Amino acid sequence: MRVVSGIQPTGGLHLGNLLGAILRWVRMQEEAECLFFLADLHALTIDVDPQELRSNIREMAAALIASGIDPKKSILFQQSAIPAHAELAWILQCTARVGWLNRMTQFKEKSGKSREGASVGLYTYPVLQAADVLLYRATHVPVGEDQKQHLELARDIAIKFNTDYDVELFVPPEPYIPAGAAARIMSLRDGSAKMSKSDPSDMSRINLTDSDDQISQKIRKAKTDPEPLPDDPALLDGRPEAKNLVGIYSAVTGESVEQVLSRFAGQGFGAFKPALADALVALLHPLRSRLEELRNDPAELDRLLADGSARAASLGQPVLKQAYSAVGL
Ligand code: ADP
Ligand code: NA
């Protein structure tokens, strides 16, 4: 089983990214051969500030390693360091059909009202995503609900290419659903909005870089209701903020929601919030220390990424060569 997954280097990580994506990657390392990449080419599909992108790439690499992506166990690399991604994407753009891309709902959502003003890259990026995984003959790709259509496209492209050129080069990847429910972490200010870096209020999210005091303060100020916690998880329905905080506690400690409630039932947030803050600090403090170490040693970070790129290239290059050869180049 070989898994390939990328994350765009867009600003620092928050608790949602960590619980919803990165810590799942960390666990995946025990189950599969993993390639994780900083999707910096994908970051170009919308307007970027070059200086910001450059620093975000390093920051994200450090954050991933600090969170437990082990560059010895997994192959961690920067997408643009491997020209084969863009080269294969071009070949595959000539396999993919306009009709297929026209059906991608993500483009419609992301381009919004200004479809004519969106970059061509935003339109074709699902093909680059296909190249990202087909290049390494990934057997599995971890996908959220919003990316299922793109994985289906990657499979269609792999099958059409193999059929058109009568080769068995590309492996149509299967979706990989990691064990354990996917945590969807909501904003601390509004239980109905996703925790996101695009929320203008920094109080809405816990960042990987927040100090212990900031974490405690954000939890203390998190929106709640005046009711005590129930003993039955079903009674959290209709109480989005309470449900979110209990869900965070559960995701952070690994206890089930039932277990958490059996301990805190009948207590109000005055008792629950400090326990939640302590659990968050226990998770994030060591990650932040490691992040600071990596930031202070840019040469080590460069070395780790260069090593990952070399290993990724040695897997991808022969596949690219065969793709060129299949089409007659
Ligand atoms: P953001 O919403 O902050 O821009 P991204 O869209 O860059 O985050 O998401 C990066 C990864 O983190 C994706 O795998 C996404 O599913 C996950 N993720 C982002 N926000 C959350 C959240 N609030 N809860 C759970 N997972 C999340
Ligand atoms: Na986003």
TrEMBL record:
Documented EC number(s): 6.1.1.2
Catalysis: reaction(s): tRNA(Trp) + L-tryptophan + ATP = L-tryptophyl-tRNA(Trp) + AMP + diphosphate + H(+)
Gene name in the database record: trpS
Domain of life, per lineage: Bacteria
Protein family membership: Belongs to the class-I aminoacyl-tRNA synthetase family.
Name of this chain's protein: Tryptophan--tRNA ligase
Quaternary data: Homodimer.
Residues covered by region (Disordered): 192-211
Pfam families: tRNA-synt_1b
Motif ('HIGH' region) on chain: 9-17
Cited function: Catalyzes the attachment of tryptophan to tRNA(Trp).
